[in-house]
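Handout, section B. The chain below has 466 residues.
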Amino acid sequence: MPHGRELDTRRAAIRAAPSGSVVVVDETALLATSAIAAHAGEAMRSGRTAWRALPGDVALLAGAGDDEAAVRRLVAGWAGQDEEDVARRARTILRDELGASLRPEMWSLVLEHRRAGHHVVLTGHAPRPVLAPLAEDLGADELVATEVGVRDGTLTGEVAGRVLLDRRGEAKADAVAGAVAGRRLAFVYAGPCSDALLAAGERPVVVSETAGEGGRATLVVAPRGGTLATPGDVLRTAGFYGALLGAAGTAAAVGLARRSRRHMVDLTCSVTGDLGLALAGIDVEVRGAEHLWSARPCVFVFNHQSKIDVALLMKLLRGGFTGVAKAEAAQIPLWGAMFKLAGVAFVDRGNTRQAREALEPAVRKLRDEGWSLAIAPEGTRSPTPRLGRFKKGAFHIALQAGVPMVPIVIHDAGEVMWRGHQTLRGGTVHVDVLPPIDTTDWSTETLAEHVEDVRDRFVAVLEGAR
């Protein structure tokens, strides 16, 4: 992984480049695994793969590598499908699989380019529907990808034009040159097998997990997900869940002795947060920890990156809180039972009336019993480091209960439990707890403004604090 000093040097060079500079980011620089293989695997698991495509797709999933035939097979499998359905599947695959292969080093550099006012072009040989959700989350100004045929909102199953895949990256280089209409490419980031694309940039950077690629400047990045869990990951995960079960058992005995469900839940949270994360090799560094206690009862809002977020909240908040979760969370083994025991409100996101009814007990606990509430205003885990749109539920609760709102900004949680994975990795999660936000002057008429204000505070910290 690049040393922090190296990334700082690259960021300084980015900031020194003029506003409007054109930056090209190839999918081979941004993703550590094949987007084509991820989509082929999803089609195979769903039973949509034609029998003629099976041998090639099996070889692709076994690591044979992308080629033009693989791209055309994927596109052919979309024949007759609704364009919006394919787009929805692409976002799901990004959330559940490709998100784990995103290189955080590249994500941070692209963020720096955007702050500098540069024109970011994402390119790749994968078809446009595959890369479109990634381009959206990345904030790319343009997407140059393999185009597909569409007729009246239905995919034809044919490639429109060239497949942007060849041995030297010439097809991508030509397509990018056409898209930027002759403007010079100030920065180009690509994998080692994109010589022609790299040669088109004034400052080409090879992005690789190994140093010394072809004599060019190389950004050495850390290996990513997409592989089987290591024995160490399995042991960390077993240690975490062992601590969870042990804490629940001990807490149950204490709760029965004291005849207090609240004591049982609070003790489980504290032990799981401390011991469970320690056994998993996960450290938590907190700035603004005093704000976790200064305004209770309150509504804690946090950005949702990973399944480990629940354990992080247990460690941070210790006790005296409950939460809100999507209805499906009630069915998660072990966690679902704990959520019910802790009085979590389960919300059906597709049923507005049910959601309001489910939240009423949470409002009463805040207002009448002094409990705090933890809720992710995004509503679901984000597929990439980009912060999702905030929903109004948490803000309505804070307004109705007349309590402050405390933002908890979580960094790096996706790195210790990759999106779509079930095992834990060692590492450090950084957390910023922001000062409490007074809600006494809020009203239903101004609520949308407060939602945007709080989200802007998250964005400012996520994109600039570390």
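Note. The chain has 18 helices and 15 strands. Compare this with the example in section A.
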